[in-house]
Structure formats: structure tokens, C-alpha cells
Amino acid sequence: MASDRPVWASLIALFKQRAPADVSVVETLVRRHRLRAVELLPWILTVVAYYLFSDYLALGSQILIMILFALSLDLVLGYAGIVTLGHSAFFGVGAYAAGIYAARICGEPLSGLMVGATAAALVGWTSGLVILRTQGFTLLMLTLAVTALLAEAANKASFITGGADGLQGVDIAPIFGWFRFDMFGRVGYLYCLAVLFLCWLFARRLVHSPFGRSLIGIRENTARMHAIGSPVRRRLLTVYTISAALAGVAGALLAQTTQFVGLTVLGFQRSGEIVIMLVFGGVGRLYGAFVGASLYMIAQDQIAKLEPEFWNFWIGLLLVVLVMFARGGVLGLVDRVLSLARRKP
């Protein structure tokens, strides 16, 4: 028994040494989940904008929708490392599903959101089963192929989608039977803001969960995640489906607030624009979607008024400047400025 005492003593000492580390890990996870005061700033700004820019609430609704769309893309591109240029496929499916549901079945908006999310999630899951078996350039081309196929299907099925003329007769009932969409966009803005807030809470919970941290591990080193027994393909398929559902909600919001769905919702241009928005704000940053989508949409609106023929040139120039001098987007630039300010005595 005397010879066993050093062994037990060493084990007890080991547990005593590891306990504080385990507690610190738990405290770190709790702190990461805790809502910080600075995270309320985007929501305060959106509420202030509702009162200060009442003439631009229609544009504000579009910005909120694009923020949600960019947020859905950031889950797969920024956190999981799935490079895609076909994310508009899910946005368009959600828009058409919600629009057809409102035009042919029921105009109730909340159930329309669920229909759009479910349809997009189904497309994301079925396409992800094939696409996520590939990598690199092949994966990129397959995402484009899915979008092209869905766009052509929507064009050919004109008896359902309206084809090139767009889906007509999208009549949305009042929210909860009380709040009818008005021509000034007040109800639409608040509706989009409430949906965005709920989706943001979900996305925030997701990226700060163990599942979200595993996605970052897959993005950084897939082989190592395989080696420790992580179900890489299943987790990528899960986040791809979730991202598709959120993009479908964004598309459904567009269909409900504009009461029209055209083929442009499935266009390559929309996929490219949403990637640019993320680059503007910062890829892999939960709030990059907020900054990037707002900056892009406002810049597009203002530049188009000044230079209606050359606004694409100025947007491209802005993108080049950000990529060259602000790696990590606007949020990355803010981080560097703050770090320099801390270093100064």
C-alpha cells in the first residue's frame, strides 16, 4: 500500500491542478455567450433610423433583408469555410415559395416565412449531400450550377412562377390580423427588424456553441478534425442546411415586403453582391453582415443617384481599396485602429 500512495497522491495533485483550468474554460464559454453592451449598438441604430429616416424605410427594409442574407452566408463561408457563389439559390427558393404560398394558398406572413425557410432548407440539404462531397473549384462550380438550374426551372415553370414577367398577385395579410403592410414601409421595416433580431439571436447562439467552435476547427484544419473523430461531413451538411433556411427567410421577407418575385432573386449577380457585402464588413465576423450590407446598400443608393451609369465602377473601386488597405473588412480595420490606440502610452 505504501507504494500506491505516490500514485494516488500524484493523481489527486493532477486533478487539483486541472480544476482551475476547467473552471476558466467554463467561465470563458459563459462570457462568450453573455451579451455585451456594444452588441446593442446595431439595434439602437436601426430603431433610431426608423424615426430619423422615415422617408427611406423601404430602403431600410431592403438593408435589413440583405443583412439577414449576408448573415446566412457568413455561417458557411466565414465560419465553416465553404466557399460558394450560389447562395442566391436558397434566397430565391425562399422568395418563390413564400410568394406562391401567398398568391395561391394563404397570405398569412408568419406561416409564409416558415414555408420559405422549409423549402430553402430542403434544397440546401439535398444539394449539400452532393456538393459537400467535393472541395475547391469543383464545389464552387457546383454551387453555381445549382443556382443556374433553379433559375432556368423558375423561368420555364411560368404557369407557377410567372416566368420572366415575375410572380403576380402576392397579397400579404396583416401581421397577427392587425398590422397591414403600408405604402410608406413602416410595418414592413419593423417586421423585417423583428425577424432579423430573432435570426441573429439564433445565429449568435450557434456560432458561440460547441457546434460553432467545431465549424471553425473544420475551417482551419479538416484533417485534424477527422483525426479527433469529429463528424465533419455531417456538421458541414447541418450548417449548410441551416444557412439555406436563413437565406430562405430573407427571400421570403423580400417577397412579402415587395409583394413581387422576379427571376433576379435567383441571379448570379445577387450571389456576387452578397459576397461583396461580407468582404466589406468582414468575413467570419458575426457583425460583418451588419456593417457590410449597410455600407454596400447605402453606397449603392447614393452613388447611383450621382453617377447612374458608372456606379458599378465606384463600388468596385471601394472594394479594391478595402481589400488592399483594410484586410478583414471594416471591422478588421476598426480592430487594428483600436489595438494601435491601446499600445500608445
The first-to-last residue Cα distance is 60 Å
Q: What percent of residues adopt helix (DSSP H or I)?
A: over 70%
Poorly predicted segments: 1-30
Number of strands: 0
Can you tell me the overall shape?
globular
Strand coverage percent: under 5%
> Whole-number average pLDDT?
85
The rounded Rg comes to: 23 Å
Number of distinct helices:
15
Sheet with most strands:
none
* Global structural class: mainly alpha
- Helices and strands, in N-to-C order? HHHHHHHHHHHHHHH
Instruction: Note the quaternary state here.
Output: single chain
Provide key terms for this protein.
345 residues, mainly alpha, globular
Any overview of this molecule?
There is one protein chain. This protein has helices at 5-33, 41-52, 57-79, 88-104, 109-131, 136-156, 158-161, 186-207, 210-220, 222-227, 232-258, 268-281, 288-306, 311-325, 329-343. The chain has 345 residues and is mainly alpha-helical. It has a domain at 39-267. The relative contact order is 0.15. Mean pLDDT is 85; it is low at 1-30.
